[in-house]
Amino acid sequence: MLNSNIRGFAFDTEMKPKILITRELFPQTLATLAQHFDVSGNQDDVPFTAQQMMQHLADKAGVLVVGGDRIDAAAIAAAPQLKVIANCAVGYNNVDVAAASARRILVTNTPGVLDETTADLTWALMFAAARGVTERERFVRSGKWESIRFIRNLGLDVHGATLGIIGMGRIGQAVARRAAGFNMRVIYSNRARLGSDIERACNASYVEKAELLRQADFVTLHMPYSAENHHLIGAKEIALMQPSAVLINAARGGIVDELALIDALKNKRIAAAGIDVFENEPKVRPEFFALDNVVLLPHIGSATTGTRRKMADLAAQNLIAGLTTGTAPNLVNG
Ligand code: 8YV
Fold it and tell me: Quick check: is 116 catalytic?
């Protein structure tokens, strides 16, 4: 029996479509997918080279992309049978959506399920950067702590400070809602001003980006990466910030000009930064390692068991829907 539901693609239902899962995933998700597909996994979790990715995709109808693995135009060109790219992340700048759309390949993401968890991590970065938590933890581990020094080890107050949120989508709003507990003033900038109901719920006031940079004690970024957001925060923007201000980036690396940030941290033009994402991750500029006023994390914004399970389930459901019905929830290419 032939199933021709999938646009321009017919396969014998006796033969399950072949899919690739690019990195280690929960065994439960693999088991669910194996009910529908002939699954090739990568439970060793060693990232594929670009060449290996192309080889693995050569005979696949679908791919579940984990860990921000790149599916670029060359990978898509090397996958003549590919019908669905299910990205296991809300951001999808790792996928060449234009190249996929040109082939009518469905691309999906996992919105909604990771907002609160990413907002939590943003706050962890804020506190850690404000109080030098990771630097001081390294100090205790070094065994060199001898006494409490009253006018040393001093950080910045989070409570009562002004929080500036650039990018006020779901994650930005989740960050804003938490600020009420710390009695903070919240200002935001965004492509478009939000409705007054949302502003009220977030207790946030709209300001222009330059004004936000001038006023905020903590500046946190929550927009997707795009060509227009490339180096949205560079030397010029950092120069507007207060010397006591803290910059947080749990969004995407390319949004911040890392060389400008390193320079500003080195010269104490801003007080500190908390960074979960890097321009060329997992490579981290070694200059960061020499700085005590930066908290560095390995892209763990969504990394809790509960949330990663939800993301994996959603990506799997997107893939199943895409390959069995020809359309899917959470399409990013319409
Ligand atoms: C993931 C993310 O780290 O959802 C996103 O956009 O950056 C993360 O949640 C990751 O790419 C997991 O596959």
Answer: no
Catalytic-residue membership of 252: yes
Pocket test for ligand 1, best of 24, 85, 90 (most atoms within 8 A of CB): 90
Do both 93 and 127 map to the same domain? no
- C-alpha separations of 300 from 10, 14, 110, 147, 297 in Å: 39, 40, 16, 34, 7
Q: What is the DSSP string of 159-200?
A: TTPEEEEE--SHHHHHHHHHGGGGT-EEEEE-SSPPPHHHHH
Domain region containing 277: 115-296
Q: Which two tokens stand for residue 45?
A: 């979790």
Within the chain, which residues score under 70 in pLDDT? 1-14, 334
Catalytic residue, chosen from 103, 136, 193, 281, is 281
Dihedral sign for Cα atoms in the order 77, 331, 277, 307: negative
Mark residue 240 as left, alpha or beta (left: phi above 0; alpha: psi -120 to 50; beta: remaining): alpha
pLDDT digits (tens, 9 = 90+) for 113-134: 999 999 999 999 999 999 999 9
CATH number at residue 55: 3.40.50.720
What's the whole-model pTM score? 0.94
Strands 272-275 and 162-166: unpaired
